[in-house]
Amino acid sequence: MHGPTSPGWLLVTLCAATGAYCLLRMRSRVEEQRRAAGGEALMGFGMAVMAVPPAVFTPPSWAWPAYAAVFGAAGLRALWSARADAHHLHHLVGTAAMVYMAVTMALSPPHAHPHGTASGVPLLTGTLLLYFTGYVLLSGVRLLPLTGSAATTGAGGAAVGWSDRPELARACRLSMGIGMLAMLLTM
């Protein structure tokens, strides 16, 4: 992505940590949560790699089409999974945004800064920015504390493991939404 080095490294750290936690969530006893966590781990690590500042590493020309193919396949999987769970529609939008950014990076000359052109923000970028802004705001509201201890205990009062904590999964999704906003702003 095109942007300053320090915020780029912060974004890399945020996305990699989120991807690592999503890998931990793949150990959940709930099958649907494991599947969702796998897609979110791919998204987190993919965003981390994409956010590495170009001053440090400039990917080879074949990397961006490969990115588009990987996230295109993940998008098809999200589309298929959306039949059973509407949350996968968000995964579909996220993978589509990753494909869009990969294609944009593949078509832009090295070290070019597409923002600040006379034409303004492209329609698709603006639409994705609006979507992820709304998603981040909604995810933030969902993190507000619940009354009681239902968030930390499961059925029968048993403690919930790290891979099954719903508030951590929401924080993970919020972090990736913020990361996606930051990446789209640099487009």
Number of folding domains? 1
Span of the ends, CA to CA: 7 Å
Q: List low-confidence stretches.
A: 113-118, 150-157
Q: How many β-strand runs?
A: 0
Mean pLDDT: 82
Radius of gyration: 17 Å
Q: Would you mind describing this structure in some detail?
A:
By secondary structure, this protein is mostly helical. It has one domain (5-185). It is built from 6 helices and no strands. Helix 1 runs antiparallel to helix 6, helix 2 packs parallel to helix 4 (87-107) and helix 2 (31-50) runs parallel beside helix 6. The protein is globular and about 50 Å long. The N and C termini lie close together (7 Å). The model is unreliable at 113-118 and 150-157 (pLDDT under 50).
Features:
single chain; 187 residues; mainly alpha; 6 helices; globular
Kindly summarize this structure in a few lines:
The protein has helices at 5-25, 31-50, 63-81, 87-107, 123-142, 166-185.
Question: What are the SSEs and their pairings?
Answer:
Layout: H1 5-25, H2 31-50, H3 63-81, H4 87-107, H5 123-142, H6 166-185
